[in-house]
Design goal:
This protein is mainly alpha-helical. The chain has one domain. The protein is about 75% helix and about 0% strand. The chain has 8 helices and no strands. Helix 3 packs antiparallel against helix 4 and helix 5 packs across helix 8. The protein is globular, with a radius of gyration of 19 Å.
Amino acid sequence: MSFLLFQASVAVYLFSVAAYLVFFLTKKTTVRRIGRWIFFAAFLLHTVNIIFRYFEAGHTPITSHHETVSFFAWSLGCCYLSFRWRYTVKNLGTFVSILVMALMLVATFSSREILPLPPALQSWWLPVHASIALIADGFLALAAIGGIMYLLQEREIKTKRFGLFYSRLPSLEALDKLNHHCLSVGFPLLTLGLITGSIWAKQAWGAYWHWDPKETWSLVTWFLYAAAVHQRFTVGWRGRRVAILSIIGFLAVLFTLWGVSFLLKGVHTYVS
């Protein structure tokens, strides 16, 4: 049942991408409204899919490659909808829906086999640590998307060649505010994810830190975002420099999530 729900959510996400792209090209507000409701319907289907997967697996479905990518896509959708509820950033939904769809396609081609949990993962810290970390990554993904949009818009303004993006993207000020909001929420959650992971490591392996590859890259990622937050809120960096740092930080997030698991072996290598 969870697989059918997953396939349905992928299909509906695809329709939302199509609607958002039509809006991006035509700028018809009716199409944007349709795309938004389709995205919301896909998100609800995805939520039900994760619930069914939980009951089928008997544990929080954030352990295999398929589950992690799927949950990351869900968390990104959740973060976008929570942001959209308070703020309006023109065409943010277009970029978000494309990234969510890309993640769902990766999850589609990953093994959906449910494997027994290793002893270290048989803990209530699993849903606490993993869900906090992935929701943090969802907000940081939004910051990176905002950074990409900022660089695209800035390029057209600086070159004074007002092409495809200028009239379709928000102002640089609006995109800078998006970055401010996402870093304000994402960085504390990222920090909390590191803390809960350390406590869990103490219970599972007897020490708070092992310098395992994933732990090391998690710390590298945290320092990148700590630098971005420091420069933004203390030094007063705005605009291009913070946008670039947000994109670099998110690349580190992606490598920490999956690159480490496939390229570097350690105690955190559980994904299938």
